[in-house]
Amino acid sequence: MRLLLCIVLVLFLSLCEVHAQATPPCTAPCTKSQLLNDVQTQFPDNTVGAITPSILRNFQTNLISSSMPAAPVGAGAFTCYVGTTGLLGTCTSALGIALGGTGATTQPGAAAAIFPLPVRAGDLVYWNGSSWGTLAGNNTTTGLLQQTNAGVPSWVSGSAVTPLVFPTPTRSGDVVYWSGSAWVTLPGNNSGSQFLSENASGIPSWATAAVFPSTTNPGDIMYWNSTAWVTLPGNTAGTKTLTENATGVPAWSAYNAGTVTSVAAGAGLTGGTITTSGTIALNMSLVTSSLGADVTVTTAYAIGPSVAQGTTGTWYASGTVTLTDTAGAATFFCKLWDGTTVMASGATNIAAASASASFGLSGVITSPSGNIRIECKEGTANGLMKYNTTGNSKDSTITAIRIQ
Fold it and tell me: What is the reported pTM?
């Protein structure tokens, strides 16, 4: 029974394989439509036919052969679609620029596909802001390349431009500088230590280095003698002062706190002029005066104590007056002056008849025009400027002192 079932199964599989391969597959390389057709015919549903390993191997072989070139290509080479079949194969023509190539098979051809076509030896390619352009190579003697401020290049004859060539050095330390029109050489210094200086026109030259001299003593002083720095040895012999002569040369001199060679006596002083020794004394002019009798005081100013001091100098004056009224209470007004300028003024009151009051005035005046005096007045004609109410006979007195 088992043997019978096996025989039936083998016959069934054979029939299925024959049925599935009734439509032959395509021959590689196959197109996309052919491969899709093989999928439909070689891989039927199980209800129609069986799928065998042979079918799978055959389909996979066709797929590989159709998706890869028939022959291997070099490393980095491209594969291309062949004809209108859509099949891949080895590229037989150059790639265009749109595909990342130049569309050329030679170096000049590739350059021509990107840059403008050159026409002569030395042609230059430049960017004009929107595309690549060509500047024809120079072929008229030696030319220099220049550009406008817009970046457009052109050739300039070499004879029209002076080359900026450095001069040839001749010794160690040569210095090259621009004279304003060309590069010029300043020969290197070979005469001791010097420094490089320039005049107002920018022309350099070598100058002797201004080197400070060596110091030897504490307090050494360096000074310029108009040609070089010189040392004045520091003072080591007591306290001294530094002096300079008319040419600016310094020297140490014995210390002197100051020597007075002449003293003159000014206004208000006597003695002098002193050159070595002598005495100056205070000698201020002084004048004083007191009333010798009572002076009647009315409604007009009456002159009281007065001094004749003269009209020269500056004077300090001070005085006191004693006042009374025989009739009753009164108010007195007094002033200290020279007849032109009032130096001081004031007022005082008498409380009752025969009562007295004293007050003083003082002031300073320069170049008085007349005698310095005290004058008083009151509201009635009963006033007196007293000279001896106290019994000392100095009740109304003025004193003037010249202070300048």
Answer: 0.38
